[in-house]
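Journal club side-thread
Mid-discussion, someone asked how the predicted structure for our own chain would compare to the paper's figures. Pasting it here so we can look after the session.
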Amino acid sequence: MVAAANGKLVNVRVTTMDAELEFAIQPSTTGKQLFDQVVKTIGLREIWFFGLQYVDSKGYTTWLKLNKKVLSQDIKKESPLQFRFRAKFYPEDVAEELIQDITTRLFYLQVKNAILSDEIYCPPETSVLLASYAAQAKHGDFAKDLHPNLASDRILPQRVMDQHNMSREEWEERILTWWKEHRGMMREDAMMEYLKIAQDLEMYGVNYFEIKNKKGTELWLGVDALGLNIYEREDRLTPKIGFPWSEIRNISFNDRKFVIKPIDKKAPDFVFFAPRLRINKRILALCMGNHELYMRRRKPDTIEVQQMKAQAREEKMAKQQEREKLQREIAAREMAERKQQEYEDRLHVMQKEMEMRQQELLDAQDTIRRLEEQLRKLQEAKEELETRQNELQAMMERLEASKELELAERQKMEDEIRLKQEEVRRIQEEVQAKDEETRRLQYEVEEARRRQEEVTAAMVSATTTPAHHHVAETDDDDEAVPNGHDVDLAPGEGEGDVDDPIEGGRITHAEKNSRIQNQLAMLKQDLAETYDESKETTLDKMHKENVRQGRDKYKTLREIRKGNTKRRVDQFENM
């Protein structure tokens, strides 16, 4: 008991899974008043799952009683008084029962912490898949350019990391691979997916207590949302006997003796012994709370719960619509960026082509200049040829006229004529060569002009955006946004009572979802290559054996509930 002097206020610190709250309470404040203050502060309405924990004067963790004054309870003396706000009871099916995002978040953080600290056994492949959902829940969509560093995150149980010959970077790489698969998933949905997988783990949501049967055999009692289970001392993974809440009529204890009366009056009482009275009190409180919730689930929802579910559906739909609108905007922006990049790439190619064509144009212009020079020289050669031909003709005429000239003069003239004829032949050959060169250059000019026209057309094209590069605009408005579809929501009004989920053939989330089944199979195969069997724990071996025999959580529960209550009570007594 904590004393407060003269009605002085007492400072209290309440730690939730993601926040610390501080209050000052009156000496007369009850547990319920403090609890109400906490849930009001964090905006929680699904209060039936939660409670306030404290460490008592003997060092035991205890739940605060709501109907008693806070200071009248055996709380460890310190300032401020320390409490932890935690889930006390777990839902049978998170997707069916959890309504508010804050409730999902608190359960997610608590279950994740239990898995990472190995309070809940989780096989390696499931640990990696859960870590990928945790990354999505914390960081949102994976983005390569904004790649968050997972080095500061607790990503996997230490046991799993120790059992594989892999560096932390290699673990992170595997988690990133699966994280990318969750692109587009809302953070709240990632938390829910995490819980849907985690709730199929055998130790999820189970409170374990050391007990003995009448023979004195040391056993474990497991109390959870579905009923009571008995475990052998060395195996908290696989229960051996089970009693659903629907079979239990009455529970009581006297000192260390705990008595459970079955609905079947022909069956004997189920009796066990706890090491301390304090533990029986805790067992009783957990049994009462879980049994009440079990029965409440099988009745129509109260008006308040119906209103909460309706509000949650509306909020989820609004978020989904907002998310879809955002996704469309992101997709449109990405499309615009892709189009812009394509246009820039095309423009870059066109610029390269323009530079090439420009060079070709310069080459063509140079060819034209050389042709004009060649034509000028050809014309000069023709004129010179004509002059020499005229001179030759004049000399021939003089030769004819000078037949009477002396032989020496005639010989001289003939030599001059011969030289002139050779010169004329040479000039004729030059003219012919120049004529051929001119024809070749004329062909080149025609080709150059054709290329020049192509270059001009390409330059015009390059300065105009083609029609298919224009970004299409959407005229969707908010009313045109299609409603999102909800997945795994609570059943609607008017549906009948829910049968016991185990007897009704409940299966694991992985069994329902082939995608998750395939992911787990791939991860298992991948991790097997680096597994070190020498570091295998007892729970690892038991899990392997269960898998080998085709058992999972729900198949095991169905198996251990077979037979009438009397047979199972007798089996317990003989353990």
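Post-session note: The CA atoms of residues 402 and 410 lie 8 Å apart.
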